[in-house]
């Protein structure tokens, strides 16, 4: 018969072992936890396979709608500016060349020297008195992409010559082109000639379109302070009084300055005419 100090039988040890395992399984089942569901902090799951270069994978729709669309629009606007600048500058050059081609023959017949940078008027190539310059010598000086100027000299009663300024619309400017859709502008040619004081009596005279005569009268000091509006039907019966207005300090020399032949020619081209201003109060030299 075994004593109390002797080891327990093997059967009792096995019962205790399986009993402990059963209790542990029952506890785990009660809490609903398995070994597969236990999260391992050192376990890194494999990433899902990436699709090949699709818009959803790259995230392009959101980026394009927020950032890239602004950049694309700015690039398109910049490209429009560059293309408009190139085309507009070429168009103004074409208009300038066409104008010089049309008036080269007339200026070469009336003046001895025409155009800056030309061979006419240089040492060793000066034409004789009354000899016209060459038509191909008429070269314009480019002051801006829409403004050109050239000179003509060598004529009696014009000691300082004549400056011809071709002021075109800035067709190379996209903003100006868009504004011109609402407020259209026009090209202009300005002739400035310095008359000889010995050959021309003191006079202040202005012939203007009726549409612009008030602004011309208010912005020109000598017209504002020394002239008044004249009655054209009495002085100039050949001039279209519905379209033209004349300011002068003295009515006597007006029929001599505007003869009937000139009046009829102005009536024919009245839509291309802006104003004529003759004054002995202008001390600014031509050019």
Automatic annotation (TrEMBL):
Provide the leader sequence positions.
1-28
Q: What Pfam families does UniProt report for this protein, alphabetically?
A: CCDC47
What is the membrane topology here?
Answer: Single-pass membrane protein
Tell me where in or outside the cell this protein is found: Membrane
Which is an annotated GO molecular function term of this record? calcium ion binding
Q: Keywords in UniProt for this one?
A: Membrane, Signal, Transmembrane, Transmembrane helix
> Mind listing the GO biological process terms from this record?
endoplasmic reticulum calcium ion homeostasis
Record keyword Transmembrane present: yes
This chain belongs to the protein called Coiled-coil domain-containing protein 47
């Amino acid at each position: 018969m075994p004593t109390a100090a002797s080891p327990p039988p093997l059967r009792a040890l096995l019962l205790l072992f399986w009993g402990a395992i059963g209790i542990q399984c029952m506890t785990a089942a009660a809490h609903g936890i398995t070994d597969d569901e236990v999260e391992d902090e050192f376990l890194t799951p494999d990433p899902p396979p990436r699709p090949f270069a699709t818009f959803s994978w790259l995230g392009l729709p959101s980026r394009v709608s927020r950032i890239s669309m602004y950049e694309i629009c700015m690039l398109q606007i910049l490209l429009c500016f560059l293309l408009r600048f190139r085309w507009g500058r070429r168009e103004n050059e074409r208009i300038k060349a066409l104008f010089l081609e049309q008036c080269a023959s007339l200026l070469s017949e009336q003046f001895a020297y025409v155009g800056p940078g030309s061979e006419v008027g240089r040492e060793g190539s000066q034409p004789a008195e009354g000899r016209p310059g060459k038509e191909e010598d008429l070269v314009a000086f480019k002051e801006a992409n829409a403004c050109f100027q050239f000179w003509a000299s060598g004529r009696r009663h014009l000691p300082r010559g004549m400056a011809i300024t071709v002021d075109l619309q800035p067709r190379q400017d996209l903003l100006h082109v868009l504004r011109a859709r609402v407020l259209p502008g026009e090209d202009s040619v300005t002739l400035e000639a310095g008359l000889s004081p010995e050959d021309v009596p003191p006079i202040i005279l202005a012939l203007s379109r009726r549409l612009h005569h008030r602004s011309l009268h208010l912005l020109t000091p000598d017209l504002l302070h020394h002239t008044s509006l004249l009655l054209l039907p009495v002085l100039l019966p050949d001039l279209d009084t519905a379209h033209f207005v004349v300011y002068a300090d003295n009515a006597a020399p007006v029929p001599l300055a505007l003869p009937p032949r000139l009046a009829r020619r102005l009536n024919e081209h009245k839509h291309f005419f802006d104003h004529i201003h003759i004054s002995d109060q202008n001390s600014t030299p031509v050019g």
